Amino acid sequence: xxxxxxxxxxxxxxxxxxxxxxxxxxxxxxxxxxxxxxxxxxxxxxxxxxxxxxxxxxxxxxxxxxxxxxxxxxxxxxxxxxxxxxxxxxxxxxxxxxxxxxxxxxxxxxxxxxxxxxxxxxxxxxxxxxxxxxxxxxxxxxxxxxxxxxxxxxxxxxxxxxxxxxxxxxxxxxxxxxxxxxxxxxxxxxxxxxxxxxxxxxxxxxxxxxxxxxxxxxxxxxxxxxxxxxxxxxxxxxxxxxxxxxxxxxxxxxxxxxxxxx
Length: 262
Description:
This protein is an all-alpha fold. It is built from 11 helices and no strands. This is Probable membrane transporter protein.
């Protein structure tokens, strides 16, 4: 069931902020997913709706990078196919999991992703020697795609890190390539969750509009003022929203932990 109009507007505001941060530092899903869950949307519907809204921003980024010549579409097709197939598998596995377990497991994944973004090293802009070949790139794209289909936040950063550390790309080309792979995994995960009827279309499309607008503002702000504040803001907002989820005594993880002290 779609949230009421007031809650949808609030989720649009969250998506706008997440879009700004995602354009600078990535990880917008660390804000939108806990916001959707905090709004009372069941876990699998929250993940499916987030997949819908994030696909628009990713598609826009792919178009922009392609126009500027940063994406080699011919060389990227096989890795993109690997990401697509992996995400389809991950999304299918998601539909098989008990909703109660998923509600308790998602905060753990969110906290793990927050630590990743907090501790992840900065990367350079220069291309380097690739450590692995094209076949391994397809395999790595499949694995990360599987994670994206199942959960999602941090996927773009994982793709970028792999392209820089394992396949020798400079930062700009790695970010551009990561957006293409992320779009492929987004579309596959979204397709599987659409078939299952898990997407809240009105909420997802409304958040998509806000996210794209936020992404434009974030890109401009980065060029104008720099990107130093984005990562700390991402961590603070994500921690606050995840804390709200865990403050609910009905959350399975909270209930389990409280039971240890009963």
